[in-house]
Amino acid sequence: MLRYLRTLSLALILLGFIVQPAWSQAGKSPVKAKNGMVSSVQELASEVGKDILMQGGNAVDAAIATAFALAVVHPAAGNIGGGGFLVYHGADGEVTAFNFREKAPLAATIDMMQNGDGSISQENRHYNLLSTGVPGTVAGLVKAHERLGSLPWALLVQPAVRLAEEGFPFTWDIMNWERGLLEKVETDPIYQSTIDAFLKPGGIPHEPGELLVQLDLAESLKRIRDHGHDGFYGGETARLMAEFMSEWGGLITQEDLAAYQAEEQAPIHGTYRGYDIYSMSPPSSGGVAVVTMLNILEGYNLSEMGHNSAAYLHVLTEAMRRAYADRAQFVGDPNFNPDMPVDWLISKEHAEDLRSTIDLTKASESDESLFNGNEPYESEETTHFSVVDEEGNTVSLTYTLEYGYGNSIVVDGAGFILNNEMGDFNPKQGLTDRTGTIGTDPNLVAPQKRMLSSMTPTIVAKDGKPLMAIGSPGGRTIINTALQVILNVIDHDMNIARAVEAPRIHHQWLPDVTSFERGYISADTEQKYRALGHELTFRGAQGSAMGIWIDWETGIKYGAADSRAYNSRAIGY
Ligand code: DON
Fold it and tell me: Ligand 1 in contact with 381 (CB < 6 A)?
């Protein structure tokens, strides 16, 4: 049967190529296509998604295939060992979302991110197996397929199996990580399984262009291909994961895996200047925060202020400051925070109250009433992709392992990297500080709870039709990246590619400082912005946004893959 499907799909793809050329691009002009489009961080994965569209798959089918392909060709963040969120807007007006965020294991405890003396354990948060939450990706993709998919499941997983089994050309961006494993294993043998899975026989690192073959991962993917949800949360994969956990000090058991379920839930809905904004609901803070900021900013004439003028950057910063303070105070897993005031947070009235505290002539200070105490860093590895099919059905999907390559630990014999998402829980009750550590109650660790996320897969719509899909990696900067791409399109009249490429800023309440992408702000704008009372730092690239815009009049889909990402590509046909 599978062989038949494979031959059939190959024939259809070849036919598709003959009838319809494919178009691809990363950079400042969007790529145009009449039928479908996939924009992702890795061209091989975009290609897989586009092929599924060409075989008659819908946007959800293509998203599933792209997600599995990314788990092979973009191991920094593409995954089956992590979790994420999918937001969907059908051409028929149906809107829904899937929450497949990881969960804390059953044996998790509120203080498991601390050492015996109460200090925060960075080991437990980010590096050892206590940092791993119960993975959600496979459950989420299966659920989305059951609800909205059209092609057979096996057909969607098979391209990833092929990429893992036959290999793909090793890319420069994986090289440093792979070589670093050789150092890590010298002090900790847990990384031997990662070396076995990724390096060449004898532990020799790949050179760019050599084929990276992942045979254990191919076997895990085959079990998913053949048995769906149970092919990951039960059987051989579950046994391998649970045994590995118990051998190396992790908490996840077969019971944890058997209990994991993804959830379909309503996305956050807001409006902005006549557009509908659909974005991810809690346990992601993305939707709440992006809608709060848009509500605040609706009160200003941003286009008149001009893109990235000091006046514009000022109100942007003030909106960010306020939304991120709300985020810290109120947002967590809704299953554990039944009284979370989401409706109030995203209301126009609340935004009006927040806007009334903004002084156009000077910066506010971040309200530090929650602040009490120290510690930094938020990783920026995650991945977002957007898909639109021929009918205009639209998927916006962000998923992650948290850090690049998660905790870099591969389940021995199963070939996939584990997430370190437990670091997204607040590590210590009451400890909120200027460096960005948050200790508020809604996001403390509890068994089976989902950790708060910033992932912001978003769809902008009008009159019941999806217009734009957007999202990005970037830890807490994700929300601000999505926000600025949306503003670039709606207020600054940019096409999707320019909107994605334009330089961005980030403020997150605490620390009270705004980061700018280095090299893009003029000296006089910087001086005016500082004169308003803002502190400013410079950084490298902020996120990598992958977007698609649909022109319903012509039917043309415009794709944009952020050139900040090394191998990104929007591919349409
Ligand atoms: O869920 C979150 O918000 C984070 N774990 C995402 C991490 C992230 O974006 C790192 N990447 N770029």
Answer: yes
